[in-house]
Amino acid sequence: MSASLRDQTLALAGIFQAASLVHQTATKGQCLQDPLETTIRSLFETDPGNTLDVYGDLYGLREGLKTLSRAMGQQPASQDAQILRYSLSLVQLEARLHKQPDMMDTIGERIEQARRTVEHFGPTHPNVQRNLASIYQDTLSTFRIKINVNGHRQYLEIEENAARIRACLLAGIRSAVLWRQLGGRRWQLLFRRKRHVAIADGILHDLD
């Protein structure tokens, strides 16, 4: 798999898209369905021919590209700053997971087991999200590093919303794994920030 800066930007957009869906669910009790489908499906693309195969097409990453551009821009809004924090936490959590190959194997095996549920119900079905949420709870949530999701209690206390948030966090980790595989490192989020934003803006311009 070739690792260009564009490929890294696509994987980074996958992280930001997952984080955006988490924020939407926590603050509004719902989220955009097309990006959600792309994000959940990315978990089951385990043998992609190239980076874009993980997400299907560029349109499926549009929400992530827009969010990346805003959050990593010069003056992000408060909601985008929150999404940036989630994204950075996902990268940090994946770095811990990278040192736990047994846990990575466990996550991979359980995602394969969940594949049948996706094929039967579709990626956005509550049963699928509950299944993926249980994977996150049993593995990544056991780390000392926690991703604290901020939102409105009336939304966070709804079981379906909590499951969707955890499923999206798991998908965000999948994109963070991809980003690492493509050579992405945390320092790039600071020192190559403008380049990633420029690439994201260029892709969005071509999509319009």
From TrEMBL:
Its main location: cytoplasm. Keywords: Cell membrane, Cytoplasm, Membrane. Pfam families: DUF489. Gene3D superfamilies: HflD-like (1.10.3890.10). InterPro entries: HflD, HflD-like_sf. GO terms for cellular component: cytoplasm; plasma membrane. Signal peptide: none annotated. It comes from the Bacteria. It is found in: Cytoplasm; Cell membrane. It is a peripheral membrane protein. Coiled coil: none annotated. PANTHER family: HIGH FREQUENCY LYSOGENIZATION PROTEIN HFLD. Belongs to the HflD family. This is High frequency lysogenization protein HflD homolog. It comes from Vreelandella halophila. The lineage of its organism: Bacteria, Pseudomonadati, Pseudomonadota, Gammaproteobacteria, Oceanospirillales.
